[in-house]
Design a protein that fits this description.
This protein has about 150 residues and is of the alpha+beta class. The protein has three helices and seven strands; from the N terminus they run H-E-E-E-E-E-E-E-H-H. The chain has a four-stranded antiparallel β-sheet with strand order 1-2-6-7.
Length: about 150
């Protein structure tokens, strides 16, 4: 999900002290074009269930967790009518944010906790330093065509 719908990470003040997350996004930037949305995407692998909001945050994404262990997630206010005395937590996702629940442990996983865990699994910053090739911006390109007009391409 972090690769498919990445947050807008460049110049993001919240990531200044989380270089591993920026490195993750920078590493995968050339492999997957970011999808701007609008989208509110729910995902699960059978052990974790979560949701991610597009990088522009145009689609609302709200959640409520009740004391009986249910998680309600929806894009519209009022889509779930719940007794408020049963709600132990409620919140909303901002642009590019994620929220998940580990179904085995019951642990609530919040945006940068999820991203820091995933981004720390590999040395993305080191890989970028070792393998990225920067193309010079001001190259001298040829002014004339190098093929004869009669040559087949």
């Amino acid at each position: 999900m972090m690769m498919l719908v990445p947050e807008a990470f460049k110049g993001q003040p919240a990531l200044e002290d989380k270089p591993e997350i920026s490195d993750f996004y920078e590493y995968y930037a050339g492999m997957q074009e970011p999808w701007d949305g609008p989208a509110n995407i729910t995902f699960s692998d059978g052990n974790v269930v979560g949701a991610s909001l597009d990088r522009n945050g145009l689609r609302p994404a709200r959640f409520e967790i009740t004391d009986d262990g249910f998680i309600y997630f929806g894009s519209e206010v009022g889509s779930n009518v719940l007794p408020q005395d049963k709600v132990i937590e409620k919140g909303r996702l901002g642009p590019g944010q994620m929220f998940a629940i580990d179904l085995k442990t019951g642990e609530r996983l919040y945006n940068y906790d999820i991203k820091a865990k995933i981004a720390s699994e590999h040395p993305y910053g080191e890989w970028l330093k070792q393998h990225r090739v920067q193309i010079k911006e001001n190259q001298n390109f040829l002014e004339e065509t190098q093929l004869d007009k009669g040559e087949a391409l």
